[in-house]
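Ticket closed. Logging final result for VOC family protein.
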Amino acid sequence: MKRFHVHVGVKDIEKSIAFYSNLFGIEPSVAKADYAKWTLDDPRINFAISMREGATKGIEHVGVQVEEAAELAEVYARLDAAGRPVLEEGATTCCYAQSEKSWIADPDGVVWEAFLTEGESTTYGASPALDQLASANAASNACCAPQVVRPKTSCC
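Final structure:
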């Protein structure tokens, strides 16, 4: 079963944890010095916040979290069908979790991730260069970042 995901950048992690814990009526399922996550069933959402130097404050990205590899393959097929560049990150460490994921941006630049969490991590991990999704030329200029896969187009 899929779960909606929202990640919000915050200025003060302690104040934000208190606010969202009150809003959701539950403490976070993961709480670190720079990150917190609530895994809610009503509404069915993975809601995360983080406080990182230089990161965007407010909504950073949204996404679809899946529970099984078959669901991830289904969502990946939808990303391909969307006709936009896809950043295939693959196996990665992100948000104190081991995951398999890919990224896409909608026509207005809203970044979406599709992912399967496969375990926990003791480190936050690194974020990919999501600005690659904004430019079709970015992949050829990027160094040491996941490859942006251009959508398959049919000819004639």
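The two ends are 38 Å apart (CA to CA). No further action required.
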